[in-house]
User: What shape does this take?
Amino acid sequence: MRLAGLALVSVVLWPSVAAADATAFVGRTTAGDDRSPVRGFAFGVSLLVVGFEVEYANTTEDQTLQRPSLRTTSGNVFAQTFGLPGFQLYVTSGAGFYRERLGNDEETALALNNGGGAKITIAGPIRARIDYRIFNLRGNPRYKTMKRLYAGVNLSF
Assistant: This one.
């Protein structure tokens, strides 16, 4: 018991390595045969291997092609590599909400996501980020499964 208490105190008082980053991205959302442009941003905090991220993405509506808009907001947890020169690989999983809209039809419900990617150092704190996600949309969306591939600029601080 004494050892467990000492371990807890040392974890709380011991300074740890923490980093944060922000990403602005553009890419493609794919659902069925639809391929629509997406853009968004993410903000994350990591403690060496494990981290947390909040993300927002927006795919615009195209009524001519009958493609709905899709907005997702999610909180994710990720595990990443460290100590590799020039890049970090990561896997991520999260949950949040989505809103799909086409004309007057609208659906808002829970969204789950899983994926992974890489952050590649360009210069100093500036990195390129490549990410692939699979979203499972609850409720009654036009498509239950949606995939997203994006590239973005990531700033580490």
Notes: The chain has one helix and eight strands. The radius of gyration is 18 Å.
